[in-house]
């Protein structure tokens, strides 16, 4: 009986699993591509949100700082309105469920093969799939954050009667936890991302075009320390030339295949 010759995809999955098996502190940088199979549009690329509607203006953060009450009024008005700017995206996130890629990452964590996820996604799907060791470098859409003390809480738990909503800890102004264009990355998320990058002995780069910084700098910093990089993305990216293993496949296919091999 003849066995089918090993394809380059099979080989890349096998090598990736072997690298995971022998590593002790694996860190993953994740982007919109992981949630694409949950029906959430990516940003760039043919059907990307920015490609279709243009990138948001850089002054979103400034406008929030100038008049947070006005920002909240508009945000509340637009809730549930698919025609409002970002309405389609918001509805896609509200309707989304974790996919096989998210679940495989949670399983890799439970199996002890994945120590930390630095996600650029704001959709809370990692947590819903069971992942716990996560840094949300661009925030979380379901949360709020205090501009003064950094306290974070669930958006659903705060009253929007009086605007802007204020922090239950220090009375500071609360904003949505999502990091706006022009807004500095919250210090705690940045510090933890650098800390995890320094600890990594293997780095996964999953579903990101790697064009937004500082997020895209983490795999590059790890690579400079001689840490192997594995890229999972159906398309070429700016990081592909640096990757030791390239898996040209959707994350929802590649990650479960790696978990399968590691279970054996
Ligand atoms: N599996 C894996 N990767 C995929 C899949 C999939 N099923 N589908 C698409 N991709 C890849 C695309 O090839 C692309 O390289 O996902 C990547 C998505 O890239 P972007 O749309 O640029 O998203 P991302 O890299 O997450 O953007 C970074 O930019 O606008 C900001 O704040 C926003 O967090 C976001 C940041």
Description:
The chain has 264 residues and is α/β, with parallel strands linked by helices. Helices cover 38% and strands 13% of the residues. The strands form two sheets. The chain has a six-stranded parallel beta sheet, sandwiched between helices. The two termini are 23 Å apart. The model has no long low-confidence stretch (mean pLDDT 94). Residues 31-33, 36-37, 42-45, 48, 120, 138, 207-209, 212, 232-235, 237, 250-252 line the site of adenosine-5-diphosphoribose.
List the ions, cofactors and other small molecules found in this model: adenosine-5-diphosphoribose
Q: Kindly state the percentage of residues in helix.
A: 25-40%
**Run of helices and strands:** HEHHHHHHEHEEEEHEHEEH
Strand content: 5-15%
Structural class: alpha/beta
User: What count of helical segments does DSSP give?
Assistant: 11
Euclidean distance between termini CA atoms: 23 Å
Instruction: Summarize the biggest pleated sheet.
Output: 6 strands, parallel
Anisotropy-based shape: globular
């Amino acid at each position: 009986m003849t066995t089918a010759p090993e394809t380059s995809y099979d080989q890349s999955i096998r090598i990736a699993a072997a690298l995971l098996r022998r590593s002790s502190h694996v860190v993953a940088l994740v982007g919109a591509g992981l949630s694409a199979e949950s029906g959430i549009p990516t940003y760039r690329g043919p059907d990307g949100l920015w490609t279709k509607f243009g990138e948001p203006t850089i002054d979103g953060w400034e406008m929030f700082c100038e008049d947070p009450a006005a920002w909240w009024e508009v945000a509340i008005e637009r809730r549930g309105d698919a025609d409002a700017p970002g309405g389609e995206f918001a509805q896609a996130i509200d309707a989304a469920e974790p996919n096989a890629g998210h679940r495989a990452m949670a399983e890799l964590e439970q199996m002890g093969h994945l120590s930390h996820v630095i996600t650029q996604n704001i959709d809370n799907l990692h947590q819903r799939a069971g992942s716990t060791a996560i840094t949300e470098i661009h925030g979380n859409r379901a949360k709020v954050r205090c501009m003064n003390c950094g306290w974070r809480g669930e958006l659903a738990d705060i009253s929007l009667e009086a605007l802007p909503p204020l922090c239950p800890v220090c009375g500071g102004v609360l904003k949505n936890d999502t990091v706006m264009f022009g807004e500095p990355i919250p210090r705690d998320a940045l510090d933890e991302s650098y800390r995890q990058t320094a600890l990594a002995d293997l780095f996964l780069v999953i579903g990101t075009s790697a064009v937004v910084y500082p997020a895209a700098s983490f795999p590059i910093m790890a690579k400079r320390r001689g840490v192997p990089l594995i890229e999972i993305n159906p398309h070429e990216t700016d990081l592909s030339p640096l990757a030791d293993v390239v898996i040209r496949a959707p994350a929802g296919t590649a990650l479960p295949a790696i978990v399968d091999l590691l279970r054996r």
